[in-house]
Write a structure and sequence with these properties.
homodimer, about 550 residues, nine-stranded mixed beta sheet, 22 helices, about 45% helix
């Protein structure tokens, strides 16, 4: 592996551990916990792992001698900056327990556990990946660990390698599955612990006990870097409207954080669109109004941030998609040989009047995409819709109407961007490098404490990293029952943007100013070696949420 | 202006001047120069500014007392990182000549000179923009200074402001126009000097005397950062082919530099495609062959870098576009009321058989775009073609054929990116911050030396900046006669990628290895505060070209 100069220099970075984790620790139990909702049902589904106490690590002045422990680690789902540091923290943590401890990495995600594909992670391998982005050390994958067969198959290799604990690094779904796996292994007395780590750039795995998921900090800083650069270009050339879509299907945390960092003219927040029951045309009109208002002052340029998941948050379209999926599922036989216009006609005939009207209000190419493009499960593929182009096209049409009415006298020329893959594997910021290393090291402490069904929890994150606290949170505590894919399931509650939360309120209080006046901020690239106020700042979302407490 | 923490910290950076410019200088004349080609014709067109000597600045131990000088500055064309530092270097340079010197910035490009729109750039303004990206201090524009009317109109405001010299910061076209302006003002004894500065991220304004244009270093580092991040994602998920288009219409320097920095699986170099007389299908097949070969080893992922200008370098398409433009120009009356299919039919009937065949070999949507989309001059709008999608679509089709023949057994799933606006206004790297500041400061020295028709020249750029040399190059020296827009014109020769040059040879010697083995390098973001090997490296293009000398 040929390394870049930065990679070489960055390899020497020693992540700063919370002071409590630098010596021997003991787990101090808090009160028993309960799930955020549906307590009876969650307890029924998790009889062995429900109601466990929160754990907090404190200094241990009389530690017992450690014994070697074998641990397996899995990277699950989409990449997030810092995954390699979770693994190196975990490695250092189990080596601190005993130098003969061993770490096994299952390859290409949870599938590696089921298929018995793994490597041993030695210090030579680990050292090559410290403080780097990516999940390439063992790869990641999206296989869901859900069935007894998978659990039993996994147990075979776990027993063969004498693995005492599995550490699963993933988002809300993967940690839900980790809880199910922990419950199952406990129920059969398999003697295997399962520990989760909160990962996702989307920032939607957080709650009272998990302040943020790792990767969000770095990814939003990379997106804000390029958004800032585009805004500086926009403000120099003064002739384009840039429509910038940002990754994050479920929640708008990424768009909101980037807006707080860069102060664009417009940022759409899906959760607000849903709460206000806005139509797509409402969203379009709100953008067109800002374009027209800026044009009054000769400012025929601007920036619009768009969360990737917007379409699915628009109530009318959400309803349409749900009925489309139902119609197709209910008429699988009748539609299987239909294509093109014949399929379109069939679908339109079977839609309710409301949803047909919504469909017909959409631009042709989008309507066609919704009707004809299917994923392997037969569902509408919303992610294929280029929302940024859809919006700019509809804004353009709206402005033509406004021009005809004398309400728009400017020019409108749009450019489009989509950022996602640019940030998921960036080298972790100091924050994520430290946070991830602590999460991994802390997971080793949870393994040593002998617990299962816990998520590694590092808190007090707006303080310098040495002051962070460490412990474990029962995963069942974060769960509720939700209707997903046609069935009620116990899942970790997803954290959407709260319209009464401090980050959104901060944004909402300033956006009128940002829309009319050009208030762009240019954050620049992530720095690793400079002054602390440049290198060591947490996300603004985290800062404002903390201040709100 | 709300500033980011990095912006605040970076404001304190003091660009490192070449040692020779830190004291008083004298201009030492070299031998008279001649243009790179078409000497007689260039001399005829530039009787007053042809054949001037190269100038080199050396220490002056007996300097005369300086007198206040008023200077005007213009940013011309596309943004490039470091423009603000050229202006701050120029400001500091004329203030060093005399503290009562004044700097006027013409607004939104050369049009500001013609329309008499300007501001005085005071130290308070300048200090707000030191070491920042963008051209927003005075804006930029694409008005071409070409006509006597424009020159005379400009002279009015120049005289009104008692401006002694104009400094034009631009690419090859803008510097060509600067030379014409210099010649004109000299011919009428206007008493106004014109000095150029070499700007363009494209890297195609360079020659024996100009080692690189400013902005190339920073922009390619930003693109390489995000390409590296995408490659790390690609190598973690192992399931996508990323088609990444990079800005740069005329030359492939950007794609080549990014390839040298990141080692992608494939990088197309337009100049090679042209030299080998490849068709679009040849390019497609060459990509499909690599996809299939990697698939043999289970590697259904990879990265492809594509220069923005590719389409226009494919000889058959270049011919087609030329004939399309001619057919439309020659039949303006007959086609002016035609649209859609009628226009397509008309065009096809009027194309030569060869070009009709080329047109029909293209995917429908691209053929239609070539026939129907026109710029305001009636020309085909090649820049609207999404080459990255065109290529991946054609590669997908080719792979289907290969699969049917048993020559491809893998999966092919493509994602697309286009990077341009993300890098043009980035905060300048240390290299560009120093280089630009030196170019601007040196321009002040050229003003003080009383010369006109010169380009600011800083050389020895692979050495630490204090060792750089400084001087001036007659712009006519870089010129030749080219046929553009239907007429022979004196222009600065564009520097395309040389297939016998060191950067391309370095790439060509390694690309087979990169294509089959995954050799990605992850450069990470530009650093400003770290070790010199991370922060102060020039581009690899510059390094290899230097070694080749």
């Amino acid at each position: 592996m040929k390394k870049s100069p930065l990679q070489k220099a960055r390899a020497a970075y020693q992540p700063k551990l919370p002071i409590v984790l630098t010596g021997a620790v003991k787990a101090v139990e808090g009160n028993p916990t309960r799930s955020v909702a549906d307590q009876a049902e969650i307890q029924r589904l998790f009889p062995n792992t429900y109601g466990l106490p929160e754990l907090k690590f404190e200094k241990n002045t009389t530690p017992a001698a450690g014994r070697p422990v074998n641990v397996g680690v899995i990277l699950s789902g989409g990449q997030a900056p810092g995954g390699h540091n979770v693994i190196s923290g975990l490695f250092d943590g189990i080596k601190k327990i005993h130098r003969d401890s061993r770490l096994f990495g299952f390859l290409m995600g949870p599938g590696g556990l089921v298929d018995h594909k793994y490597i041993e992670l030695t210090s030579a391998i680990i050292d090559d990946y410290r403080n780097t982005g990516g999940f390439d050390i063992i790869g990641s994958g999206r296989t869901k660990l859900e069935t007894k067969e998978q659990f039993d198959k996994g147990l075979e290799i776990v027993k063969e390698l004498n693995i005492k604990a599995l550490v699963i690094i993933g988002g809300d779904d993967s940690n839900t599955n980790a809880a199910v796996l922990a419950e199952y292994y406990k129920s059969i007395n398999a003697g295997v612990q399962v520990i989760g780590c909160p990962k996702t750039i989307d920032g939607d795995l957080k709650n009272e006990c998990i302040e943020t998921s790792f990767g969000f900090d770095t990814a939003t800083k990379v997106y804000s870097e390029v958004i800032g650069n585009i805004q500086r270009d926009c403000n120099s050339a003064k002739k384009y409207w840039h429509f910038i879509k940002l990754m994050g299907r479920s929640a708008s945390h990424i768009a909101l954080e980037c807006a707080l960092q860069t102060q664009p003219n417009i940022c759409i927040i899906s959760e607000e669109v849903e709460a206000k029951n806005m139509t797509l045309q409402d969203v379009v009109n709100s953008i067109a109004d800002v374009v027209a208002a800026r044009a009054e002052y000769g400012n025929n340029f601007g920036t619009v941030l768009i969360p990737e998941g917007l379409i699915e948050f628009i109530p009318a379209i959400k309803k349409l998609i749900a009925e489309l999926n139902n119609v197709l599922a209910a008429n699988a036989d009748a539609t299987k040989d239909l294509a093109g216009e014949a399929l379109e006609t069939f679908i339109k005939e079977h839609l309710s009047a409301d949803n047909r009207a919504t469909l017909e209000s959409l631009p042709d190419n989008v309507a066609r995409q919704l009707m004809l493009d299917r994923d392997p499960h037969g569902n509408v593929q919303v992610s294929l819709i280029e929302t940024e182009k859809l919006l700019s096209e509809m804004v353009g049409n709206r402005l033509k109407t406004m021009a005809a009415e004398g309400k728009f006298k400017g020019k409108f020329s749009a450019l489009h961007h989509f950022f996602g893959y640019e940030g998921r594997c960036a080298d972790p910021s100091n924050f994520d490098a430290d946070y991830c290393y602590a999460l991994g090291f802390n997971a080793a402490c949870l393994v040593n404490a002998g617990v299962t069904g816990y998520m590694s929890s590092i808190r007090n994150l707006v303080k310098p990293s040495v002051q962070w606290t460490a412990g474990g949170i029962p995963i069942t505590m974060m769960m509720n029952i939700e209707h997903r894919n046609g069935a009620d399931k116990p899942v970790i509650q997803k954290a959407l943007v709260r319209l009464d939360g401090a980050p959104f309120r901060k944004f909402a209080s300033q956006r009128d100013d940002w829309s009319m006046n050009t208030c762009y901020v240019y954050p620049g690239p992530i720095q690793y070696f400079g002054p602390a106020e440049v290198c060591d700042q947490p996300s603004l979302t985290l800062l404002y949420e903390h201040k709100d407490k």
